[in-house]
C-alpha cells in the first residue's frame, strides 16, 4: 500500500524539540572528523564541486530535442510548444542551459530536482520554474496521491511538478549523495583544514624551545609570542632563528611524508569520484590515467554515469510534459561518444562501403555541410541478394565521397600549419627562419601524416591497396603537400587521380 512507503507519521516538532531531519539539514549531522557537512558546505570541497559541476554542465550542454514518432521512424517536432521550453526558454528569466544546470545540481546535492509546471487553460505547459529542494516536502494524501508541499503552504499535484529523482529507497524520492558521503567529504575537508593550519604555523610541525634556567609564566608567554611573530606563517618559513641565553630548539614532529598528508588528499579525490561515479581524471586527478585509456574512460562515463541520469530526465519529461503519446524528448550524446580521428574515419569507411551510410550523413556527423551527389548509397560489387542474376557489366564503384573527405583534411592541415607558424613568428623573433627550417624537416611531416593519414588510408583501401603501398602513398602525398603550391581542391583531385 502506498501509504506505507513513507512509514509512520512523525510527531510535530517544536523549537524546543526540533526534528532530527531539521537539525541534520541545518548542520549536516555529526561526522567522525568533527567537520560539518551539508548540501551547502560540501561545495567547499574542490572534488565535490568539480564532480557536481562536471555532471551539471554535461546534462545542461547536451542538445535536448523533441520528436514525433511516425510509422517510418521519427521527425524533429520543433513546432511543439514543449520543444522551446526544453531547448531554449523554459521561463522568462532562465535559459534551457541554466534550468538544467540548476536542476541537475539539485539532483546531485539533494538527490532530487524539482520544477513547477505552469500550464494554460488547456493543460499545456507554458513555463518551468525550478524549486529549491529544501523547500519541498512530499506527502501522500487521503486518495493515495503524491502531493508536493512547498514552504509548508502551497500544495502541488504530482502532474504539476517535474521531479527528477536520483537513486532512492521508495521509487519517489532520491537519496542525497552528500548525506551518504558526508564522512568521506568531511575527511577531505579536514585534511585541507589541516594543511592550512600546517602552513599557517610556518610549514613546520611542533617543537620545543629549551631554556637552561627556570622561566616564569610571563617570560615564557613573551618568548612564545615573540617566536611566533618572528617565525610563524608560511611567508616566514625557512627564516633564520637567533637563539640567546642558552635557548635550544628541538624538533618533535614527524615529516609531512611520514604523515602521508598528500596521499590522504589523493585518496579522498578518488573516494569522491567513486561516490559520483566519475573517472578521476575528469575532476583533475590523473592517477592511473594514460593516453590509451582516457578515451575509453570517457565512453564509460557517458554509458554508466551520464546515461542513467539522462534516462531519468527523458522519462520524467515524457510523463509530465507531453499529453500526446507520439511525442517525446531525447538527449543527443553521439558527440560525446566520438572516438579519435583515425577510429572515426575507419568506421565511416566501413559504413560507407557497406552501403548503409551516405557521404552527406557522414558529413553531418562531422558538422560539415552536405555536398551535391552526397545522398547516394553504394554497394560492394561482390554483394547481392540470392535471387539476383549476375550481370556481365558492372558500374564502377562510386567514390564521390573521396574528394570532399580529402579536401577537408587538407584544409585542416593547412590551418594547423599556419597557426603554428604565426605563433612561432611572435615567440621566436629573429630566430624564426632557423626554427621554421628545422620544424618543417623534423616535425611537420609527422603532423601532416596524423591529420591526412586517416583520409588517405580510407581512399587507398577503397581501391584495395595493401598496407605497404598505402603507407608509401601516405608518405609521398605528405611530402608533396608540404612543398606544393596547389590549393586544397586541385591537390586533392591530383592525389586521388594518382591513387587510381
Could you characterize the architecture of this molecule?
This protein is mainly alpha-helical. The chain folds into 2 domains: 1-6 and 18-134 and 162-199 and 254-337, no CATH class; 342-499, no CATH class. It is 47% helix and 12% strand. The chain contains 16 helices and 11 strands. It has helices at residues 20-27, 46-61, 81-87, 96-110, 177-180, 182-200, 217-231, 261-276, 294-321, 341-354, 359-365, 402-428, 432-442, 444-462, 467-483, 488-499; strands at residues 64-70, 73-76, 112-119, 125-131, 136-140, 146-150, 154-157, 161-165, 207-210, 248-251, 327-331. The strands form 4 sheets. Strands 2-1-11 form a 3-stranded antiparallel β-sheet. Strands 4-3-8 form a 3-stranded antiparallel β-sheet. Strands 5-6-7 form a 3-stranded antiparallel β-sheet, with no helix packed on it. A hairpin with a 5-residue loop joins strand 3 (112-119) and strand 4 (125-131). Helix 2 (46-61) packs across helix 4, helix 10 (341-354) packs parallel to helix 14 and helix 12 (402-428) packs antiparallel against helix 14 (444-462). The longest helix is centred in the middle third of the chain and has 28 residues, at 294-321. The chain is flat. 22% of the residues are buried. Mean pLDDT is 79; it is low at 1-11.
Amino acid at each position: 500500500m502506498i501509504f506505507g512507503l513513507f512509514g509512520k507519521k512523525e510527531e510535530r516538532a517544536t523549537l524546543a524539540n526540533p526534528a532530527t531531519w531539521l537539525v541534520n539539514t541545518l548542520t549536516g549531522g555529526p561526522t567522525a572528523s568533527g567537520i560539518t557537512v551539508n548540501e551547502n558546505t560540501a561545495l567547499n570541497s574542490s572534488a565535490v564541486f568539480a564532480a557536481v559541476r562536471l555532471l551539471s554542465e554535461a546534462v545542461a550542454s547536451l542538445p535536448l530535442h523533441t520528436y514525433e514518432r511516425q510509422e517510418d521512424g521519427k521527425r524533429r517536432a520543433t513546432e511543439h510548444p514543449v520543444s522551446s521550453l526544453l531547448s531554449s526558454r523554459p521561463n522568462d528569466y532562465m535559459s534551457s542551459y541554466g534550468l538544467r544546470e540548476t536542476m541537475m545540481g539539485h539532483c546531485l546535492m539533494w538527490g532530487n530536482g524539482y520544477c513547477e509546471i505552469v500550464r494554460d487553460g488547456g493543460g499545456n505547459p507554458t513555463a518551468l520554474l525550478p524549486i529549491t529542494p529544501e523547500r519541498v516536502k512530499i506527502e501522500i494524501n487521503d486518495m493515495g496521491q503524491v502531493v508536493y508541499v512547498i514552504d509548508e503552504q502551497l500544495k502541488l499535484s504530482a502532474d504539476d511538478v517535474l521531479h527528477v529523482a536520483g537513486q532512492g529507497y521508495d521509487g519517489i524520492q532520491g537519496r542525497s549523495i552528500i548525506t551518504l558521503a558526508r564522512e568521506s567529504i568531511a575527511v577531505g575537508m579536514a585534511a585541507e583544514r589541516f594543511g592550512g593550519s600546517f602552513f599557517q604555523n610556518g610549514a613546520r610541525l611542533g617543537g620545543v624551545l629549551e631554556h637552561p634556567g627556570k622561566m616564569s609564566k610571563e617570560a615564557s608567554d613573551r618568548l612564545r609570542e615573540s617566536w611566533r611573530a618572528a617565525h610563524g606563517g608560511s611567508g616566514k618559513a625557512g627564516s633564520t632563528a637567533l637563539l640567546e641565553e642558552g635557548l635550544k630548539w628541538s624538533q618533535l614532529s614527524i615529516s609531512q611524508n611520514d604523515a602521508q598528508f598528500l596521499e590522504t588528499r589523493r585518496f579522498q579525490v578518488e573516494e569522491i569520484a567513486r561516490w559520483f561515479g566519475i573517472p578521476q581524471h575528469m575532476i583533475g586527478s590523473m592517477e592511473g590515467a594514460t593516453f590509451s585509456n582516457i578515451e575509453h574512460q570517457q565512453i564509460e562515463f557517458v554509458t554508466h554515469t551520464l546515461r542513467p541520469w539522462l534516462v531519468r530526465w527523458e522519462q520524467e519529461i515524457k510523463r509530465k510534459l507531453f499529453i500526446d503519446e507520439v511525442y517525446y524528448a531525447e538527449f543527443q550524446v553521439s558527440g560525446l561518444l566520438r572516438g579519435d580521428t583515425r577510429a572515426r574515419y575507419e568506421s565511416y569507411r566501413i559504413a560507407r562501403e557497406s552501403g548503409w551510410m551516405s557521404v552527406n550523413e557522414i558529413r553531418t556527423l562531422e558538422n560539415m555541410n552536405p555536398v551535391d551527389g552526397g545522398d547516394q548509397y553504394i554497394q560492394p560489387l561482390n554483394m547481392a541478394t540470392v535471387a539476383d542474376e549476375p550481370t556481365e557489366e558492372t558500374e564502377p564503384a562510386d567514390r564521390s565521397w573521396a574528394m570532399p573527405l580529402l579536401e577537408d583534411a587538407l584544409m585542416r592541415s593547412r590551418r594547423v600549419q599556419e597557426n603554428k607558424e604565426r605563433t612561432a613568428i611572435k615567440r621566436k623573433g629573429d630566430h624564426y627562419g632557423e626554427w621554421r627550417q628545422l620544424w618543417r624537416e623534423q616535425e611537420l611531416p609527422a603532423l601532416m601524416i596524423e591529420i591526412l593519414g586517416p583520409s588517405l588510408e580510407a581512399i587507398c583501401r577503397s581501391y584495395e591497396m595493401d598496407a605497404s603501398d598505402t603507407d608509401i602513398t601516405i608518405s609521398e602525398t605528405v611530402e608533396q603537400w608540404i612543398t606544393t603550391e596547389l590549393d586544397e581542391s586541385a591537390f586533392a583531385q591530383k592525389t586521388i587521380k594518382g591513387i587510381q
